[in-house]
Specification:
This protein is an alpha+beta fold and 321 residues long. The chain has one domain (6-319): Four Helix Bundle (Hemerythrin (Met), subunit A) (Up-down Bundle), CATH 1.20.120. 41% of the residues lie in helices and 16% in strands. It has nine helices and eleven strands. A five-stranded mixed sheet has the order 2-1-6-8-9. A four-stranded mixed sheet has the order 5-4-3-7. The longest helix is centred in the middle third of the chain and has 26 residues, at 119-144.
Length: 321
């Protein structure tokens, strides 16, 4: 799966803030593989497309074959955050890097608050993310098999117990997920996956990671400072935290497109379309990319404990295959 997409984002009149104002920087233009990107007269040129640099709000490149001119990178780095990724065929994982305008998106208040979270508040936020992940995956399993028993109960307790509950549910979830796909696979391979389904899951999670990492940067957060995942070199720990409620969207996309697991270009297209698909959030319909923005903004506002964090919850009608 060495192929991917370059996604360029401009203004989206359909995405709205809570106050009803139009949100910017969420409409995507998918640029296919083997493109040379350069700048002429203030416009980013990709094949037959011409996009004004000043209209761009995000660039996410998930393609190893695209070639960027130095002028294009310099202008983009002063305009908006740029996240680039390359699929490592040997390690079967994404390698990422980001370019950001220097100090343009820093949110010192949010950074200070996330570093000064009390153990109790950090546990509450971590619980919300992990518990929502469990609920979303259980909702998906219930769509596969309505006879499924109720999900396990969560009691507010220590962080270690929450992690154990997540690990216990993973042992419950994956065999039933793979069974729904009519496969003899029983184990989830996270590192160097050999089975096409596991490789496709890793590939799809990468699309989410990049979208969330970009939104963290745009919200003034440091993607490397998380609350669940510890600091580790070259790992966007906060993006790894915030992706948890959204994992079900990749798992659903894989189920819906099993026939394309061996077609890298088609699979990349399905994951790109996933980010533009509509899901329910806060009793409204939004594109998944807009929901990522709204959830990260909710996370930032909840850091002081005065506002409740609102993670993404998978609705039953969105879980249908």
């Amino acid at each position: 799966m060495g192929l991917g997409w370059t996604l360029i984002f401009g203004h989206d009149p359909d995405a709205t803030q809570d106050n009803g104002n139009a949100s910017s920087f969420t409409t995507s233009k998918a640029v296919s593989e083997d493109q040379n990107l350069h700048v002429t007269d203030g416009k980013l040129i990709s094949g037959h497309r011409k996009l004004a640099i000043e209209s761009l709000g995000s660039v996410q490149c998930l393609s190893a074959a695209c070639q960027w001119s130095q002028t294009a990178l310099e202008l983009l780095a002063t305009q908006c955050p740029v996240v680039m990724a390359r699929w490592d065929k040997q390690q079967k994982k994404w390698r990422t890097m980001s370019l950001t305008p220097k100090a343009r998106y820093v949110n010192p208040t949010a950074l200070w608050r996330i570093c000064r979270l009390s153990p109790q508040r950090a546990t509450q936020l971590a619980s919300g993310l992990l518990w929502t992940k469990v609920c979303n995956q259980h909702q998906m399993l219930h769509a596969f098999d309505p006879r499924l028993t109720d999900k396990p109960q969560l009691r507010e307790n220590s962080f270690n117990r929450i992690l154990r509950l997540e690990a216990s549910y993973a042992r419950f979830f994956w065999p039933r997920y793979f069974a729904a796909l009519s496969t003899d696979l029983f184990e989830r391979e996270r590192r160097k996956p050999t089975h096409p389904i596991n490789a496709a899951l890793n590939y799809g999670y990468g699309f989410l990671y990049h979208a969330i990492e970009w939104q963290c940067l745009a919200s003034g957060l440091d993607p490397t400072i998380g609350i669940i995942h510890k600091l580790r070199r070259s790992r966007p720990s906060l993006a790894c935290d915030l992706i948890e409620p959204f994992r079900c969207t990749v798992e659903l996309t894989v189920v819906r497109h099993l026939d394309d697991l061996q077609e890298p270009k088609r699979l990349a297209g399905h994951f790109a379309e996933m980010l533009e698909a509509s899901f329910s959030y806060r009793e409204n319909k939004f594109k998944l990319r807009s929901i990522i923005r709204l959830m990260v903004e909710s996370f930032v506002r909840s850091l002081d404990g005065k506002e409740a964090f609102q993670p993404f919850i998978l609705h039953a009608r969105d879980a249908c295959v």
